[in-house]
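step: validate -> pass
step: tokenize input -> pass
step: predict -> running
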Amino acid sequence: MRDCYILGIESSCDDTAAAVINNGEVVSNVVATQQIHEEYGGVVPELASRAHQQNIVPVVHQALRKANIDKKDLKAIAFTRGPGLMGSLLVGTSFAKSLAMGLDVPLIDVNHMQAHILAHFIKTDEQRRPNFPFIALTISGGHTQIVKVTDYFEMEVIGETLDDAVGEAFDKSAKILGLPYPGGPLVDKYAQKGNPKAYPFTKPKVGPLDFSFSGLKTAVLYFVERETQKDPDFVKNNLEDICASIQYTIVDYLMDKLKNAVKQTGITEIAIGGGVSANSGIRQALRDAEARLGWTTYIPKFEYCTDNAAMIAIVGELKYKAKLFADQDIVATARLKM
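step: predict -> pass
step: emit ->
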């Protein structure tokens, strides 16, 4: 098979990433993380965009070096157009446009959330690829959506959050418990040793396919305030059970919505994507559903869950083969729709 090297560039939030893919297989995948945001308890957009400017050239250079190719071997440049932080997106967009123009190769724009879904089509020995049509649950720090996927580029959002995203619910709950940023992975870590039914939290009540997480965050806050008034060491002494209870409530809520989506569409092929798909609770819940409900579930490798450029590159390859190219006047869009 003739080589078809595609460079993917991802800069939607606080990770600068570049990857090279060749006929569906990742040959390099480089991510530069930004540690500076930890001291602020969240991503600071201005600091993120400055760090992207510092990181993007060495990250792309390293991706090409690890792939053992020259930039002249690239067939196309794919980049994240949105959604994301505007300043961060502008860095990746401007770099990708300049590189594509300099190399005289096609420029390909990619929707970040579509990329999380299509990451399932990266060729690996361990990763199965879903069959069309399938239901995708995209869960991250900024997004929570249920998407009906009919083809690579035919997707319909059939349910989404009405306020906060699930990743924010995890991180804000962690902050209430005094855990450092990013707190979501720490909630997962402690939850694995706790009792998931120690403290019941009410699941928000909205439409059958939609989500709401603002009320849950408030419930966790009031719960912690109430209990620490009785015992100042309550959180420290019960951290694992609290985390397990929060995670159980969120995962059960996500599964309720997925069950509704399956019932409504009749589709039992279920895939997850986005940073929160690295959570052990949702992964185990999907495996259990496969055994109990007859679903066929698809869970991405950990490195393709969080923001990465391999998922941008695979979409770039799919669009390259379909000749879906972007013009040089294309602009980044912070609130880009699916």
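step: describe -> The two ends are 32 Å apart (CA to CA).
step: cleanup -> pass
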